[in-house]
Amino acid sequence: MARKEPAADAANAGRLKQIALTYKMTRKADKKIGLVLAAVGIGTLGVLLAIGFLIGHPVYLGILGLLLAFLATAIVFGRRAERAAFGQMEGQPGAAAAVLDNVGRGWTTTPAVAMNRSQDVVHRAVGKAGIVLVAEGNPNRVKTLLAAEKRKMARIVADVPVHDVIVGTGEGQTELKKLRTTLMKYPRVLTGPQVTATNDRLRAMGDLMTNMPLPKGPMPKGMRMPKGGKAR
Fold first, then answer.
1. Cβ atoms < 10 Å from Cβ of 24
2. 135 near 121, Cβ under 8 Å?
3. Region (Disordered): which ranges (predicted)?
4. pLDDT of the chain along its 232 residues, tens only?
């Protein structure tokens, strides 16, 4: 027991440090986060206390109010922290890949399955909704990348639905903060074994990273991507 207690204390201290760090990062993008959290917590507790006095049970409702105030504050904090993080990531190369990696269980993500010399990139996610190609970069250029990737996949996964998403804030694009929600809204049409089989076939096809002949050791300075910059 003596050994477990220090480990538990260390874990709790680590969580508190992580929460504090998240709060500091969020506050840089959301100056009102402190006031909002205070308003949510105090407001929730105040409402429950008022109800408690009205019905003659202020102690019970006060305890319940504390619990609900903590829960409501945690939920609001999580959402605003996530929004702030997306705001900081918006427009950064690879931001969509980072979001895809955290979509949740049941999804397999392969970053940078296609790329061109202008650094436009296409990532791939596979789940029960089928295949989702997520593009980052110039809207006109990535459409060419998406079309080429669909043609390549059509030879081996023609029976699997393919969706495409262009991340951005323009018309017809999906904002980074809404990417996960967009994926979750697609209808689930594949079974678990079908998802596994689709992933196996796509892995056999290879992708940009596995097909590109990279030298061993550090990449030489000034090295450029082969013309076309895309696996075939």
1. 9
2. yes
3. 209-232
4. 455 566 555 566 667 777 777 777 777 767 888 888 899 999 999 999 999 989 988 888 989 989 999 999 998 888 787 776 666 666 666 778 878 877 778 899 899 888 888 888 999 999 999 999 999 888 888 899 999 999 988 888 888 999 999 988 888 888 888 888 888 899 999 999 999 999 998 888 765 545 544 444 444 444 444 444 444 3
CA–CA gap between residue 139 and residue 90 (Å, rounded): 15
Helices 33-55, 4-29: crossing angle, 10 deg rounding: 110
Closest C-alpha among 126, 133, 148, 137 to residue 231: 148
pTM of the model: 0.61
Burial of 188-221, coded b for 16+ CB within 10 Å and e otherwise, reads: eebeeeebeebbeebeebebbeeeeeeeeeeeee
Other C-beta atoms closer than 10 Å to the C-beta of 122 total 29
Give the burial class of 74: count Cβ atoms within 10 A of its Cβ; 0-12 exposed, 13-18 middle, 19 or more buried.
middle
Q: What is the largest CA-CA distance in the chain?
A: 77
Query: Residue 15 burial (CB < 10 Å; 0-12/13-18/19+)?
Result: exposed
Return d(Cα 86, Cα 95) in angstroms, integer: 8
